[in-house]
Amino acid sequence: MHRRPRLFWQTFFVTLLLVVPMMAGVVYFAARRAQQQALVQAAADQSGVAQPAGARQTFRLLLAVQGDPPAFLLVRCDGVGQSLVFCALPGEMVLDAPAGQTTLAECYLAAGPARAAELLTATLGVAPDAYLAATASTLADAWGDAGVRFDTAAVLDASRRKALGLEGDTVAELTADRAADFLGQVAALPDLEPPALAQVRGALWASFVRQNPGTLAGITAALQGQSSRLLTDLRAQDWQRLEDCLSWLSGASGLTVDYRIPSMDAVARGWQPDAEGAELLLTLLEGGSPAA
Predict the structure, then answer these.
(1) How far is CA 70 from the centre of its chain?
(2) Considering Cα of 43, then 83, then 290, then 69, what sign does the dihedral take?
(3) What is the number of helices (H) and of strands (E) in the chain?
(4) Digit-coded pLDDT (tens) for 228-257
(5) Chain Cα centroid distance, residue 48
(6) Nearest-angstrom CA–CA distance, 292 and 289
(7) In 195-218, which positions are buried (b, 16+ CB within 10 angstroms) versus exposed (e)?
(8) Global pTM?
(9) Contact 200, 155 (CB under 8 A)
């Protein structure tokens, strides 16, 4: 009778001798696993911190090409979405003004790009990050020698291509310094409505960048080198944001370059975005990705 309690305790202690090391091993390896996971997470966090600044930037620029008439584009540089969108605006686009209504071109010629950006903001209810105005030759100098093969079939019908001498071959081979002359020839085509001309302009700009994305990396420095020939409200930090974004996009593997044209209705003073066109402009100037 006295041996049974002794046997119980002997068995109990033997079991402890077996189980305790096993439990200690489980705890040790669990702690090691937790430590390894923490190191992996720390490495991931460090990788996120090291991500290029341009990958987190979105910049919206109102670009005015000086001339008579002037030309206008909204440019959305989206480092987050790895996209660059050109939205050409007709100079005949109607803007709300304190004294009634005016057009984008009339406002620009009368009061300059700052006022044009101000009235565009008042009309749409949202502002671009900055404006920049330059002559076509200034922009061409900043772009450099990279040319483009521009297929006009998507933006001009057969009769208009024939008038431009592109009846047999729809592709126009252009350099940046020839682009303004080409657009002038397009503008001189009979019965070409302003939104259609804007579409050609947006498509041409998109083609230059789509076929030469690497040029984006140096475009801001080239423009800053010609600052005396620019009208802009870009501040030093804006230039840096824009440069970061364009540099990132120039080498981004998922880069998409496209153009959008807001649908418009003809009105007494010119052309006015309809509901769908206004929504597109708001999307370009606010957030998200414009629908194709």
Answers:
(1) 22
(2) positive
(3) 10, 12
(4) 999 999 999 999 999 999 999 999 999 999
(5) 21
(6) 9
(7) bbbbbbbbbbbbbbbeebbebbbb
(8) 0.81
(9) yes
